[in-house]
Write the structure tokens for this entry.
Amino acid sequence: MKPQKMQFDELLRNYEAALSSAGYGYASRLRMLNRAGKLIRQHEITGHSELDEDIVKEYFRDVNQRLCEGKISAPHHRELNRDIQRLFLYYETGKVELPNPLKGSRYTLTPEFQCIADSYLSSGDFHPNTKNDMRWAAHRYFVWLAEQGYDDMTNVGVRELQGFLLDCSKRHPPNSVYNIKLYLKKLYAYLYEAKLSESTYAELLSFRVNRETKIYPALPMTDVAKLLDSIDRRTNIGKRAYAVMTLGADLGLRACDVVNLKLGDIDWVRGEIKILQSKTRKTVVLPLTQKTGEALYEYILNARPETDAQHIFLRLLRPYTPLMSAGTVGEIYRDCCIAAGIESSKSFHTLRRSLATAMVTGGVEITTVAQVLGDTMIDSTKKYISLDSIHLKQCALPFDGIAQMGGDAK
């Protein structure tokens, strides 16, 4: 069935799935869905059940006018146009890739290197995001080798690999060097197995790269409690919001996993929730805490619309379809923040950070925290240690015996 035959809610859900399959990350999908949702709301206000070309054209005229008036920048203008073009393309064809897409590689390879790259990328069942990164790193390496006069992997050894890494360190920031090194490990594991390299060079590619990591703040637990207490659980919308918030505050679920949660994922007898994480594609089993269990029980029995839908969280008004996207969970979180009188944002992920920080502060082993969060790499969890201000203060060195600068200091 073509996308244009779907209702808007179903269209957006399938659109998000298509974006994910094409390799777009969570943040990119959230941005595209938010903009698509605004355009669709304009259609619904005017009574349209399908995308209307005249309304889409009016959207573009409005965006162009905002650019001319200096209200948006040129890069932002291009993003807005491309995001709506991408939605309309999916609506018409079921595809999400525009001409000259950002995904993939802009490098042109020799036939020999192209053959190696194609075989390498088809050698495993990789996530689309991972595959795009693998492609970029491999193509960049093969282009560099071609610039050095190599037509294939013959006579390419440790000296060439070291030269490429040195060139990357001069051209790219630490985060990019880290990714290149990571995917070169995968590439050389394949080359060695395919007998195209004399070694995996695993030891050479094990050097440490200090990456720049932005640490986002966590919501204090006092504010988390205030957030939950401010929700009016006498209403259906309050029951749903409370259930959603407890999943983030008590279990650390991501917004995308909350949206995808199904009735069959809850084992009421064992007191467990079993989910396949959208981000990592790994299954994680979490204990169903009493607070979360009671919140879900109250919503499912007394607020959830009667329907055959398997998703737990649904629209409260007809049609009773699953929540549109992870962005909807962000909007629920923002509304709860406003009601609680705390700084509002649409980052539901803040509750996940708050849980992790509270566990680290409480002395829970970092490996246990990683298991609860479902992180596949321990480094993803270690960043929460930096938010543990209580124990960090104990590590602070005193200034006793250190002469002050200026005055009588010599």
